[in-house]
């Protein structure tokens, strides 16, 4: 279950940081209104780590969530993607990997780039 990005910011403040990260990363991939994030991510070379703030520039409804995360750990979430040709789901799949070093927290999503294109 993801946290709807339009919910009250107080609910996010009550969540622990790892839950906030899990919800944010799921929302970035799941919701169509965050398509700009995927567009920006796939314009970065596969395997290159990028600060999430860079990829979310212009997505105004995410700024509060990103600021809360940064204030909580004095670090920003990073993300990369890798082609995943061995997927049993078929062709066109990739892995999207989110990582926050200070917590050794990560989240990996299997994503069909054909759905994006």
Summary keywords:
117 residues; alpha+beta; four-stranded antiparallel sheet; 40% helix; 6 helices
Supply the number of structural domains.
1
The fraction of residues in strands falls at 15-25%
SSE ordering: HHHEHHEEEH
Low-confidence stretches: none
Total of helices: 6
What's the shape? globular
The beta-strand count equals 4
- Mean of residue pLDDT? 86
Task: Give the fraction of residues assigned to helices.
Answer: 40-55%
Supply Rg: 14 Å
Which class of secondary structure composition applies to the elements? alpha+beta
Give, in spatial order, the strands making up the sheet with the most strands: 1-2-3-4
Largest sheet: 4 strands, antiparallel
- End-to-end gap: 25 Å
In a nutshell, what does this entry contain?
This protein has 117 residues and is an alpha+beta fold. It has one domain. It contains 6 helices and 4 strands.
Would you kindly provide a written description of the structure presented here, covering whatever features stand out?
The chain has 117 residues and is α+β, with helices and mostly antiparallel strands. It has one domain. The protein contains six helices and four strands; from the N terminus they run αααβααβββα. It has helices at 9-14, 17-30, 35-42, 52-55, 63-73, 113-116, and strands spanning 50-51, 78-83, 93-100, 105-112. It has a four-stranded antiparallel sheet. It is globular and about 40 Å long.
């Amino acid at each position: 279950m993801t946290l709807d990005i339009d919910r009250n910011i107080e609910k996010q403040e009550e969540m622990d940081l790892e839950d906030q990260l899990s919800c944010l990363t799921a929302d970035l991939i799941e919701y169509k209104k965050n398509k700009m994030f995927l567009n920006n991510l796939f314009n970065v070379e596969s395997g290159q780590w990028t600060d999430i703030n860079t990829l979310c520039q212009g997505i105004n409804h995410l700024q509060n969530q990103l600021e809360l995360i940064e204030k909580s750990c004095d670090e920003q979430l990073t993300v990369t993607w890798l082609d995943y040709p061995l997927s049993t789901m078929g062709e066109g799949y990739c892995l999207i990997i989110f990582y926050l070093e200070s917590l050794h927290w990560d989240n990996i999503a299997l994503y069909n780039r054909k759905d994006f294109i």
